[in-house]
Write a structure and sequence with these properties.
The chain has 184 residues and is mostly helical. The chain has 7 helices and 3 strands, in the order ααβααββααα. It has a domain of 112 residues: Multidrug-efflux Transporter Regulator, Chain: A, Domain 2, CATH 1.10.1660.
């Protein structure tokens, strides 16, 4: 039994070429201008607005950015802080202006952080945990300790939290005196 080879010739629309053939646009004839053309030779000004580069949030933070972020920490006073028993994760991240992942990382690295977890796994920080977070944030961001250095500091200095409280009260006093001096 022999098979016959047949070819089918389809009718394609005129703008679509048949397979294997190229579509060639029709030639247009443009006449040369009779009169000379005046050309503007001024430099072209860029009319597009400048696009500001967004800072990448990936990778390590610059030391200058780290120092600027320390000043933005907004932790309430002790009276207001201890008025609630627990703070949720988003409230704590908004206090310290850090990501959720950084707090979870610090929780894994430092033994003094023990937030309570509910059955769903949500973390609830006690005011004592927030005080410890403030100490860790101070060591890592202000004093520029590494994670291991901060761990060693906390192990060797059992009264580090008392020293830190004294430093914070002296900073508050200094700020008050600067405000008083500026008012004179």
């Amino acid at each position: 039994m022999q098979l016959k080879q047949t070819s089918f010739d389809f009718d394609f629309p005129p703008e679509v070429p048949k397979p294997g053939k190229k579509l060639v646009p029709p030639k247009q004839v443009i006449a040369a201008p009779q009169e000379p053309i005046e050309v503007d030779v001024r430099p072209i000004q860029n009319t597009k607005p400048k696009i500001e580069e967004k800072k990448s949030k990936r990778g390590r933070m610059k030391l200058s950015d780290m120092a600027a972020s320390v000043e933005r920490v907004e932790i309430p006073d002790d009276e207001e802080l201890f008025s609630k028993r627990y703070y949720n994760m988003s409230a704590v991240t908004s206090m310290f202006k850090v990501n959720h992942s950084l707090l979870r990382f610090w929780e894994n690295e430092f033994d003094i952080l023990k937030p309570k977890k509910n059955g769903k796994g949500d973390r609830h920080f006690r005011p004592e945990d927030i005080k410890n977070l403030k100490l860790i944030h101070h060591l890592l961001r202000e004093r520029k300790y590494t994670i291991d250095g901060a761990k060693d500091f906390l192990k060797k200095n059992k009264h580090a939290d008392k020293k830190f409280e004294m430093i914070e009260s002296l900073k508050n006093l200094r700020g008050f005196l600067h405000e008083l001096k500026a008012g004179l």
